[in-house]
């Protein structure tokens, strides 16, 4: 434990200079590095979430007391552990602090051994949290890796690395399935906020009447089904990055609230009168042409300009054919289990000439399918995807065109549903509306044709 303590920094906050020095002496005996503040305002100026995993604060202080300091720290860095010190007889204040997120509380004056033990537990807890976050980060990195070889993607990644150094809002544009979330994740990991959370939400997949609550949170009783207070995605991302995927699908009525977040860094939870401060980096993405939506009056121009401070464009897979080979190799390793799957030169050329209307997402689904179905480790041209011309086509003024060699009606219906899901970003309600069928019929078809759950997410 002593070795860990040498790398731990504790912020001690108390307006009593003598008591403050005593606490610092006890912590230094244990090998901690200590920073001192005389009240909450001084503490916030000194507080560094990358350095101070633990904060010890008195409750009653001039200018800013311990409760306000606790709430401010939790808004800025939710993972920081705060220990509050309360005078004898102030149990109610201690209970309130625990409800607000304090790690523990101590009576004043403190027993030296009890104080040391409480701080030690907090430091160990913070260390375990950090280890878990790092483990999740590594696992996440293994599953979400940018794979490319083309010059076009090299330029995109270089741009992402440049904008990561800024705090400006980023707008990532590109077709569905091109890897916009991976670019957003790379921006987060290359930024000063890399130790904070990365919170992603696909706005097209959230029912419109729930978007406000999902983004900004709600209080208990704010609406039917709100049985407890809930933090929205913006608060969950405090200290880190929020990724707003399919920003073009945000209802016009909610866009002023989003604009306020970008301008003032505050959110208004549903059912709460007071606004809540949030400290987040916003990265948004869309496959839609926002400028066109602005012209149509369905997207606010001021919101567009706030979002597009740092624009990044991800090209479709058909414009970076050089990336197909490394992507295929990557996906076959991921989905091939313990088999060393490879593709023949002929199959690779077929894959490079395929249209891939669903971009990288469609390519991964294809690789997953052939990895499961292939009997041999060498995959040949018999597994090549069908050319787009063999599918049903509808053209203006000419109606339905069928291929001369015939077509499977079952396969066709399944393909239409999958394509409709892709076009509507796997939002089932929008897909049902697009196909002009009730939603329950769509759900029946999804089960009937065993369309993978992943395609519905």
Could you describe the 3D structure shown?
The chain has three domains: 2-138, 3-Layer(aba) Sandwich (Rossmann fold); 149-315, Rossmann fold (3-Layer(aba) Sandwich), CATH 3.40.50; 389-457, Arc Repressor Mutant, subunit A. The protein has helices at 2-5, 17-29, 40-46, 66-76, 91-99, 112-143, 151-164, 180-189, 211-216, 233-236, 255-264, 290-296, 301-307, 324-335, 345-353, 359-373, 409-423, 428-435, 439-448, 453-456; strands spanning 9-13, 33-37, 52-58, 81-87, 104-108, 170-173, 198-202, 217-218, 230-231, 241-245, 266-267, 276-277, 281-286, 310-313, 342-343, 378-379, 393-395, 399-401. Residues 1-7 have low confidence and may be disordered. Helix 11 crosses helix 13 (301-307). The strands form six sheets. Strands 2-1-3-4-5 form a five-stranded parallel beta sheet, with helices on both faces. The protein has a five-stranded parallel beta sheet with strand order 7-10-13-6-14. Strands 8-9 form a two-stranded antiparallel sheet. It is of the alpha/beta class and 457 residues long. The chain contains 20 helices and 18 strands.
Write the layout of secondary structure elements.
Layout: H1 2-5, E1 9-13, H2 17-29, E2 33-37, H3 40-46, E3 52-58, H4 66-76, E4 81-87, H5 91-99, E5 104-108, H6 112-143, H7 151-164, E6 170-173, H8 180-189, E7 198-202, H9 211-216, E8 217-218, E9 230-231, H10 233-236, E10 241-245, H11 255-264, E11 266-267, E12 276-277, E13 281-286, H12 290-296, H13 301-307, E14 310-313, H14 324-335, E15 342-343, H15 345-353, H16 359-373, E16 378-379, E17 393-395, E18 399-401, H17 409-423, H18 428-435, H19 439-448, H20 453-456
Parallel strand pairs: 1-2, 1-3, 3-4, 4-5, 6-13, 6-14, 7-10, 10-13, 15-16
Antiparallel strand pairs: 8-9, 11-12, 17-18
Helix pairs in contact: 3-4, 7-8, 11-13, 14-16, 17-18, 18-19
């Amino acid at each position: 434990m002593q070795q860990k303590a040498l790398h731990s920094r504790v912020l001690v906050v108390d307006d009593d200079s003598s008591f403050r020095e005593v606490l610092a002496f006890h912590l230094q005996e244990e090998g901690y590095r200590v920073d001192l503040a005389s009240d909450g305002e001084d503490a916030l100026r000194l507080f560094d979430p990358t350095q101070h995993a633990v904060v010890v604060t008195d409750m009653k202080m001039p200018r800013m007391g311990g409760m306000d300091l606790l709430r401010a720290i939790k808004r800025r860095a939710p993972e920081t552990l705060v220990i509050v010190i309360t005078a004898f007889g102030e149990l109610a204040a201690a209970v309130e602090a625990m409800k607000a997120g304090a790690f523990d509380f101590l009576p004043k004056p403190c027993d030296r051994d009890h104080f040391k033990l409480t701080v030690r537990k907090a430091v160990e807890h913070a260390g375990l949290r950090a280890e878990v976050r790092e483990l999740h980060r590594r696992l996440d990195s293994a599953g979400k890796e940018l794979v490319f070889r083309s010059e076009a993607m090299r330029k995109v990644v270089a741009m992402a690395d440049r904008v990561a150094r800024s705090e400006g809002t980023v707008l990532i544009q590109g077709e569905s399935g091109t890897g916009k979330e991976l670019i957003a994740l790379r921006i987060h990991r290359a930024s000063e906020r890399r130790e904070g959370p990365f919170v992603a939400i696909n706005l097209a997949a959230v029912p419109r009447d729930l978007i406000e609550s999902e983004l900004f949170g709600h209080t208990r009783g704010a609406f039917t089904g709100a049985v407890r207070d809930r933090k929205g995605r913006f608060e969950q991302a405090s200290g880190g990055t929020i990724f707003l995927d399919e920003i073009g699908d945000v209802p016009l009525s909610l866009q002023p609230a989003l604009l306020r977040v970008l301008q003032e860094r505050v959110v208004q939870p549903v059912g709460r009168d007071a606004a809540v401060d949030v400290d987040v980096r916003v990265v948004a993405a869309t496959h839609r042409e926002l400028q066109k939506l602005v012209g149509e009056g369905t997207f606010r121009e001021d919101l567009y300009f706030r979002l597009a401070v740092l624009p990044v464009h991800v090209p479709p897979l058909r414009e970076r054919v050089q990336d197909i080979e490394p992507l295929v190799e990557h996906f076959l390793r991921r989905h091939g289990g313990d088999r060393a799957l490879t593709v023949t030169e002929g199959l690779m050329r077929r894959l490079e000439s395929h249209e891939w209307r669903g971009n990288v997402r469609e390519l991964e689904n294809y690789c997953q399918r052939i990895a499961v179905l292939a009997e041999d480790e060498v995959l040949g041209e018999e597994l090549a995807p069908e050319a787009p011309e063999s599918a049903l086509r509808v053209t203006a003024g000419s109606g339905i065109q069928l291929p001369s060699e015939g077509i499977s009606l079952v396969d066709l219906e399944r393909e239409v549903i999958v394509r409709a899901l892709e076009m509507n970003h796997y939002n089932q309600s929008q897909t049902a509306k697009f196909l002009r069928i009730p939603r329950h019929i769509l759900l029946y078809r999804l089960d009937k044709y065993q369309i993978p759950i992943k395609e519905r997410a």
